């Protein structure tokens, strides 16, 4: 029973948490004889929507109201097309049938994926084999951790301001506080000028050279000119080139592995369903010829 509830929730996109789905349908909006219920709203959420997103949507009264109103308008239009007789058109009937089959086949796919998700051990084994087979994929270059202060502009005044700040730093001023108060790089200024660890070649050449010239943690650069203005850098730390340990990439590998395993199984399942397919090539050619007329 536990399994059937699990795949049913995945298959039709319904959250079974307490209070979400009533025992009997509850009418949310009415337009004449048209009634839209809570079940209609829940069913309108695409299958496979993550539970947290579905819950957030259903807790939003304004979103639920708008969804119910849209469904009411859609139902009224469907009734009008039925009254007009167009619903009896063979192509229209085929479209309705295909829409029904799409919903049901999507539910079957989600049911299949839930039933064939790999267990924790199989997933870890698969991820570890991927890690061992592709060591270069987990190599990272040498990185430097720096802080900087940027004074924008290419004027004597902007350079003088940068030089004044550098003098204060050499006199023992707190780099983070000066960066927060003065740096024109507002993104890093809020972090005390901290740019974190990064390969030095991610920066513009002048900035990269200034980092490479810093040898000791805590060392300050001179005033460095780039296309952005005048910079002052301080080296915080360096990390050599290395291979990331499995533990650092395990979750990413497991997520990718899980999708790949399930996708492969789903492909095998769907291919198996049509393994005895018979193709009427003459009919297909005739179909194409008629469509071209």
Describe the structure.
This protein has 293 residues and is an alpha+beta fold. The chain is 57% helix and 14% strand. A hairpin with a 2-residue loop joins β6 and β7 (229-239). α1 packs across α5 (90-115), α2 (38-44) crosses α4 and α6 (120-133) packs across α11 (246-273). Mean pLDDT is 90; it is low at 1-19.
Write a concise keyword list for the protein shown above:
57% helix; 12 helices; two-stranded antiparallel sheet; 14% strand; alpha+beta; 293 residues; four-stranded antiparallel β-sheet
Describe this structure in a few short sentences:
The chain has helices at residues 2-12, 38-44, 51-58, 61-84, 90-115, 120-133, 156-170, 175-182, 186-189, 205-213, 246-273, 281-292, and strands at residues 27-31, 34-37, 139-140, 143-152, 194-198, 224-226, 229-239, 242-243. The chain is an alpha+beta fold.
| Rounded average pLDDT | 90
Low-confidence stretches: 1-19
Beta-strand fraction estimate: 5-15%
Apparent shape: elongated
Class by alpha and beta content: alpha+beta
Total strands: the figure is 8
Strand order of the largest sheet: 5-4-7-6
Helix content: 55-70%
Q: Compute the CA-based radius of gyration.
A: 31 Å
From N to C, what is the helix and strand string?
Answer: HEEHHHHHEEHHHEHEEEHH
- State the end-to-end distance: 56 Å
Annotation field: number of helices: 12
Largest sheet: 4 strands, antiparallel
